[in-house]
């Protein structure tokens, strides 16, 4: 079964706008990771946040983690057409194999 | 460094046929994973190797799927016989456990279509 569930399932925005995706999970985690997948391609690691961290930044990405609510959010600021992709959260529960959510499909209109 | 290599990139077979996928992980990565990704879903772990030993194969349909990692480097995943519901992208990933975290690096995947 999939541990994480992303929300929304699909998101369409204009270039320059911010995109926010949410992820909820069910069990305790060591860390939570976000991946991007362009159509027909493999997954690319974006950012990792540990269970004892609340917020992390990487370039235009901002990730938050609320372990009490078992939720995380990914914010992409000043979106570009090249950000069009599917975004997945993945949880590491200590077994080291990741459990992925079902993804958010982001479409950035130029 | 070179990324994770997979072949073939695409494969079309008829049901009940056999198929094999190959993966070459990033050099030095001890852990190798095979995931199945059905269209519209996230990847689901099939099997995890640590060097040439199996760590987790609890979600591998062992009646038809098999995988091996000889010499702790390359790996092959086989399906025999294939069913329609096996149509998916098969992703290979590798990682090295450093600093208490485990970032996985994915190959481009093999898209399997079973007719």
Summarize the structure.
The complex is a heterodimer of chains A (110) and B (115). Chain A is an all-beta fold and 110 residues long.
List descriptors.
heterodimer, A: 110 residues, mainly beta, 5-stranded antiparallel beta sheet, globular, B: 115 residues, 7-stranded mixed beta sheet, 11 strands
Describe the protein's architecture and organization:
- The complex is a heterodimer of chains A (110) and B (115).
- Helices cover 0% and strands 55% of the residues of chain A.
- Chain A is globular and about 40 Å long.
- With 110 residues, chain A is mainly beta.
- Chain B is an all-beta fold.
- Chain B contains no helices and eleven strands.
- In chain B, a hairpin with a 6-residue loop joins strand 4 (31-37) and strand 5 (44-50).
- Chain B is globular, with a radius of gyration of 14 Å.
- The chains are: A mainly beta (110), B mainly beta (115).
- The interface between A and B is medium-sized, with 25 and 27 residues.
Helices of chain A, by number, come to 0
Low-confidence stretches of chain B: none
Question: Rg of chain B to the nearest angstrom?
Answer: 14 Å
Structural class of chain A: mainly beta
Structural class of chain B: mainly beta
End-to-end distance of chain B: 37 Å
Helix fraction of chain A by DSSP (H/I, runs of at least 4): under 10%
Which chain pair shows the most residues in contact? A-B, 25 and 27 residues
How much is the average pLDDT of chain B? Answer: 92
Overall form of chain B: globular
Q: What quaternary form is this? A: heterodimer
| Proportion of residues in β-strands of chain B | over 45%
């Amino acid at each position: 079964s999939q541990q994480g569930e992303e929300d929304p399932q699909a998101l369409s925005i204009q270039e320059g706008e911010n995109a926010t995706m949410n992820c909820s999970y069910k069990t305790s985690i060591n860390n939570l990771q976000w991946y991007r997948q362009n159509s027909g391609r493999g997954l690319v690691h974006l950012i990792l946040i540990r269970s004892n961290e609340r917020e992390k930044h990487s370039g235009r990405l901002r990730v938050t983690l609320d372990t009490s609510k078992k939720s995380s959010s990914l914010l992409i600021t000043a979106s570009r057409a090249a950000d069009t992709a599917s975004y997945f959260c993945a949880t590491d529960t200590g077994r080291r194999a990741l459990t992925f959510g079902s993804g958010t499909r982001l479409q950035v209109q130029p | 460094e070179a990324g994770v290599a997979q072949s073939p990139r695409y494969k079309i077979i008829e049901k009940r046929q056999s198929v094999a996928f190959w993966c070459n992980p990033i050099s030095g990565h001890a852990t190798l994973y095979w995931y199945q990704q059905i269209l519209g879903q996230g990847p689901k772990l099939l099997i995890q190797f640590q060097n040439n030993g199996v760590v987790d194969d609890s979600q591998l349909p062992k009646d038809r799927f098999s995988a091996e990692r000889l010499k702790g480097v390359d790996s092959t995943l086989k399906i025999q016989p294939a069913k329609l519901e096996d149509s998916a992208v098969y992703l290979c990933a590798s990682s090295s456990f450093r600093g208490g975290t485990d970032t996985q690096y994915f190959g481009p995947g093999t898209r399997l279509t079973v007719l």
